[in-house]
């Protein structure tokens, strides 16, 4: 048996969109179950995201601390952001987010992991990149507002982040998946064996 997620789509008899927000919306689908019953499934429609695990030469990860209102916590996270433009190349978006949130650029980019954040209630897909060969970005820093105006930046050793994840002190899913994927890749075929930065992404197809 091959352990691999596969595309599939069950019949939808009807759909409604009871809420449309600035970036996301809510949808209710009438889905036909295998036994023939029709049930309602509510979920958030999301444009998709990118996240960047930026690793410096001292084996530290660029992280930021930001207030997240739905969970009423300040979370340590890796730089991330929405795919604002349909069909946008995720690598271009990742470079932009690393610049805007950390004022950093990177020479070497790889795909670390592709994940669905909460597939039982949201269709958000996230591509997590590994970025190496870091240096300060040129030009002025990006103007921040709202939650980002209170953001803290730090560089934290990989081992410290792993301990924080396993101790239950760090909860952001992109940070958790990114850091543990990094450790797994190192113990496997190595970081240079990771997928190239522009590897296909069926969940969010993109152009050049």
Commentary on this structure:
The protein is of the alpha+beta class. The protein has 3 helices and 11 strands; from the N terminus they run E-E-E-E-E-E-E-H-E-E-E-H-H-E. It has helices spanning 90-102, 158-166, 173-187; strands at 12-20, 25-32, 38-45, 49-54, 60-68, 73-77, 80-82, 104-116, 125-136, 152-157, 195-196. The strands form 3 sheets. It has a 5-stranded mixed β-sheet. A 3-stranded antiparallel β-sheet has the order 1-2-3, with no helix packed on it. The longest helix has 15 residues, at 173-187. The mean pLDDT is 94.
The number of helical segments is 3
Structural class: alpha+beta
Give the overall pLDDT as a whole number.
Answer: 94
What share of residues is helical? 10-25%
What form results from the Cα inertia axes? Answer: globular
Q: Unreliable runs, pLDDT <50, ≥5 residues?
A: none
- Let me know the largest β-sheet: 5 strands, mixed
Order of helices and strands: EEEEEEEHEEEHHE
Q: In what order do the strands lie side by side in the largest sheet? A: 7-4-9-8-11
DSSP E strands, number: 11
Tell me the fraction of residues in β-strands, as a range.
Answer: 35-45%
How is the topology of this model organized?
Elements: E1 12-20, E2 25-32, E3 38-45, E4 49-54, E5 60-68, E6 73-77, E7 80-82, H1 90-102, E8 104-116, E9 125-136, E10 152-157, H2 158-166, H3 173-187, E11 195-196
Parallel strand pairs: 4-9
Antiparallel strand pairs: 1-2, 2-3, 4-7, 5-6, 5-10, 8-9, 8-11
Helix pairs in contact: 2-3
């Amino acid at each position: 048996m091959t352990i691999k997620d596969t595309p599939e789509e069950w019949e939808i008899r009807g759909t409604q969109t009871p809420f449309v927000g600035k970036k996301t919306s809510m949808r209710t689908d009438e889905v036909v179950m295998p036994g023939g019953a029709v049930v309602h499934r509510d979920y958030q429609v999301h444009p998709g995201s990118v996240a960047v695990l930026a690793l410096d030469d001292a084996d530290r990860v660029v992280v930021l601390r930001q207030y997240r209102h739905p969970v009423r916590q300040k979370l340590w996270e890796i730089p991330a952001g929405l795919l604002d433009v349909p069909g946008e190349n995720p690598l271009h978006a990742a470079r932009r987010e690393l610049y805007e949130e950390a004022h950093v650029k990177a020479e070497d980019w790889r795909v670390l992991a592709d994940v669905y954040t909460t597939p039982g209630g949201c269709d958000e897909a996230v591509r997590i990149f590994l970025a190496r060969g870091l240096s300060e970005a040129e030009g002025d820093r990006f103007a921040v507002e709202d939650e980002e105006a209170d953001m803290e930046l730090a560089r934290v050793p990989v081992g410290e982040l792993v301990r924080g994840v396993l101790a239950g002190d760090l909860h952001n899913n992109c940070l958790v998946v990114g850091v543990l994927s990094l450790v797994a890749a190192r113990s496997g075929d190595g970081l240079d064996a990771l997928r190239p930065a522009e590897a296909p992404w069926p969940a969010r197809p993109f152009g050049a």
